[in-house]
Design goal:
134 residues; Rossmann fold
Length: 134
């Protein structure tokens, strides 16, 4: 885990991304936009962070493809038991099966990996406004 506790500036976002280089880049970009980031590489780390910070997390960014172990949708299902904050799934693919598997999760939507950070920022702001957090 990169971060154990949130900073006090901006909305607190849980980023679940298994690739350390992608996670570092996204974490830095998001912090540059004013968000506080909790990063988890695995489902266990994400569950631990959500358990300790469930009332504070405003949004979860979850990679669909987490390598070995459960995928992002399965992890989101587990996390949903501890928090009802919005979820944005990060993906490098668009498949109907992925969309249908995530239907019941009360998510905010999908964002493509490699997209301009301004687009992701807009989606995050919309999700936070929609949930009443911003």
């Amino acid at each position: 885990m990169d971060d154990e506790s949130p900073s006090s500036s901006g909305a607190l976002v849980l980023l679940l991304e298994d690739d350390p280089l992608i996670a570092l880049s996204e974490k830095q970009d998001l912090e540059g936009l004013g968000y506080s980031i909790l990063h988890a590489r695995t489902d266990r780390q994400a569950l631990s962070l959500v358990s300790r910070n469930s009332g504070s997390i405003g949004l979860m960014l979850i990679d669909i493809d987490l390598g070995k172990g459960p995928d992002g949708i399965s992890v989101a299902t587990q996390l949903r038991k501890h928090t009802d904050c919005p979820i944005i799934f990060l993906t490098s693919r668009a498949e109907a099966e992925v969309a249908s598997r995530s239907e019941g999760l009360s998510r905010w939507g999908f964002a493509s990996k490699g997209r301009p950070m301004k687009l992701l920022d807009g989606r995050i702001r919309d999700a936070l406004r929609g949930s009443g957090l911003r």
